[in-house]
Amino acid sequence: MNTIPMEHGLLLAGILFIIGLVSVLIRRNIIFMLISVEIMLNAAGLAFIVAGARWVQPEGQVMFIFIITMAAAEVSVGLALILQLYHNLKTLDSDAANVMNG
Amino acid sequence: MENLLWLVPALPFAGALILIITGTRLSRPLVSLIGVGSVGVSALLTLILGSQFLSAGPTEPVYQQVVWQWFSVEGFNPGIAFHLDALSMVFIFVITFVGFLIHLYSTAYMADDDGFARFFAYLNLFVGSMLVLVLADNLVLLYLGWEGVGLCSYLLIGFWYKEPANGYAARKAFIITRVGDTALAIGLFMLFQLFGTLHIQTIATEAPQTWAVGSQAATIIAFLLLGGAVGKSGQLPLQTWLPDAMAGPTPVSALIHAATMVTAGVYLITRMHVIFELAPTAMLTVAIIGAVTLLIAGCAALAQSDLKRVLAYSTISQIGYMFLALGVGAWSAGIFHFMIHAFFKALLFLSAGAIIISLHHEQNMFRMGGLRKLLPAVFWTFLIGSASLAALPLITAGFYSKDQILWYAMAGERGNTWLYLAGLLGAFITAIYTFRMVFITFYGAPKSHVTHPPGPIITVPLIILAVLSLLGGFIELPHNFGHVVLFSDFLTPLLPAIHANDALGTSEWIFQLVAAIISLSGVYLAYVFYLQKPALQANMEQSSLFRAVHRFWYSGWGFDKLYDTLFVRPYVFLARINKNDIIDKIYAALAAIAQVLNRSLAQTQSGILRWYMMGVVVGALLIITLSLLP
């Protein structure tokens, strides 16, 4: 059986993470920002899976399930916030929500 | 009876307390009764104690009484405890007795004053503090009395506080004596550090065993104690407060600034004589300070025109004599002069007060004149006081006390010719300024009207003091002349006797003759200048040198100006620079920096989500980089 080398898996996780991070930073649409955060979460989960497979330990998958669960909870809160934002400001532009500046 | 010792200082304190609390509501006769009565009963008690004391026999009589423990800290437990020996006996006798006469006199002198009750409250408080000072058996209690009299002096100099000049004089007296008091306090700290106690008798017995003669610690402590004495007694270089202290009512000048408080320095040095004898340098300094002060103050007295200022400078000068006596180790001579001086100087001040009030608060001698006929009783008593001050031979007490000092300044073990000559010159100057004062005030043409002739309450104390000023000297007569030594015998168990140089022993009469001639010639000179040929004086006033010297002496040798430039002005200058508190600027700068940082950081809180995100990322990167660094 051909195994995928650990470096490839980690590289993929890193790339996914960078993509997510960059899109959080450059996107103004708040839904896209939420999706990018999800990508970053999945990148982190992938890194756990790869590490779990490398050392043949179950904790990596346990951790991934934990992250998925947390992400679900986070998304529900995040979507609620987005709804409120849209309700109040009639826009999805995150820069519009700058009322609470110093 | 000796259990009643505590009542001697307690009664005046009680009087002060009653007067402070209820004074304004009591009638004036009642206030007088409380004020004079408390001191009067103290004086009576002192007389009873004194007679017991004298009849106690040859053993050294000492009464000790511990009233209660003041405080107790780590084995240091000074008590409110009184110690009556021959030295404090002399002092409490003078304080209560002269104090009583002055209180009595004040009832008439201050009769029309608004602050009648306040005056007697302060005066009683003063007498109480002074008694605590001389009766204290430990130095802490002594210091309490020492500060108490300083406070009363301040309150009474500024008694007529509505006049700003009086308040200034009061502050000046308080601050300048504080300089000396600080030295005294440091001296006490050092004594405590070395002995672990401030009990006077313990220190007196332990000091000679601990220190060799001339040891450094003894010298330093003696100098610090001397600093306190110099401040309180108005000696060089802290004498400038005393002439200004005359701003207070005249009975105050008589009681505090002539008879009692200013001699506290003399008491302190005598009380701690064991330490001073271990420090010959300090002893010599005491003598030199005394000699220089008596000359400087005598010259300054020559130029004054205010009657009370003449007396003030003369007080400084006479205390200079006492210091001279202490400095050459003639302890009992110094204390004897203290007692006689208290009599005649109180007399002079009270007579001056009688004149001043008779002429409706006129103090300038040159506006008096011719009062001999107008105020005969005051004239005679003033004349007696002046004769005693000028040490007219044979009849006055001042002659015997001053002669003793001069003799020991020459013939004592520590005496030398220079000290003697200074004392002799001082005696000459004293005679001149004293009789200058008498001739200007009482002779010549009357220049003012007597509006309030003094009543019996004023004249009776004057007469009693005049009698004492004449007869007080006969309890101590020189060796070759009567040889009465009641006073020095009384003090001998306590104070070491002084031995005269044997080589001079037979020639004592020559010195007495010289002193007598000097004093008489001083009187004659004053007579010529101020009575017989006033033209001589007018001639001298033509010369610019005379006027310059006169101005210089009138200002008290320019000490006020000197201290003004040396201390007051730099201090005021610094205060003006530091008006906005330079040290505070550092903390203000800290606050300003914090504010600037706050403002710039507040800029970053833009409300834009992506910037915050960026911040998180940069921070995370930073932490990761730092943790990856070796």
TrEMBL record, chain A:
InterPro entries: NADH_UbQ_OxRdtase_chain4L/K, NUOK/Mnh_C1-like. It catalyses: a quinone + NADH + 5 H(+)(in) = a quinol + NAD(+) + 4 H(+)(out). One of its GO terms (biological process) is ATP synthesis coupled electron transport. It holds the Pfam family Oxidored_q2. It is found in: Cell membrane; Membrane. Keywords: Cell membrane, Membrane, NAD, Oxidoreductase, Quinone, Translocase, Transmembrane, Transmembrane helix, Transport. NDH-1 is composed of 14 different subunits. Subunits NuoA, H, J, K, L, M, N constitute the membrane sector of the complex. Belongs to the complex I subunit 4L family. NDH-1 shuttles electrons from NADH, via FMN and iron-sulfur (Fe-S) centers, to quinones in the respiratory chain. The immediate electron acceptor for the enzyme in this species is believed to be ubiquinone. Couples the redox reaction to proton translocation (for every two electrons transferred, four hydrogen ions are translocated across the cytoplasmic membrane), and thus conserves the redox energy in a proton gradient. NDH-1 shuttles electrons from NADH, via FMN and iron-sulfur (Fe-S) centers, to quinones in the respiratory chain. The immediate electron acceptor for the enzyme in this species is believed to be a menaquinone. Couples the redox reaction to proton translocation (for every two electrons transferred, four hydrogen ions are translocated across the cytoplasmic membrane), and thus conserves the redox energy in a proton gradient. This is NADH-quinone oxidoreductase subunit K. It comes from Adhaeribacter rhizoryzae. The gene is nuoK.
UniProtKB/TrEMBL annotation, chain B:
It is a multi-pass membrane protein. Its main location: membrane. It is found in: Endomembrane system; Membrane. It comes from the Bacteria. GO terms for cellular component: endomembrane system; membrane. Pfam families: Proton_antipo_M, Proton_antipo_N. One of its GO terms (molecular function) is NADH dehydrogenase (ubiquinone) activity. Coiled coil: none annotated. Gene3D superfamilies: 1.20.5.2700. InterPro entries: NADHpl_OxRdtase_5_subgr (IPR018393), ND/Mrp_TM (IPR001750), NU5C-like (IPR003945), Proton_antipo_N (IPR001516). The chain crosses the membrane at residues 6-23, 30-54, 80-104, 116-135, 141-161, 182-204, 210-231, 252-270, 282-303, 310-332, 338-357, 377-400, 420-445, 457-475, 509-530, 609-629. GO terms for biological process: ATP synthesis coupled electron transport; electron transport coupled proton transport. Residues 136-430 form the NADH:quinone oxidoreductase/Mrp antiporter transmembrane domain. Residues 70-120 form the NADH-Ubiquinone oxidoreductase (complex I) chain 5 N-terminal domain. Keywords: Membrane, Transmembrane, Transmembrane helix. This is NADH-quinone oxidoreductase subunit L. The lineage of its organism: Bacteria, Pseudomonadati, Bacteroidota, Cytophagia, Cytophagales.
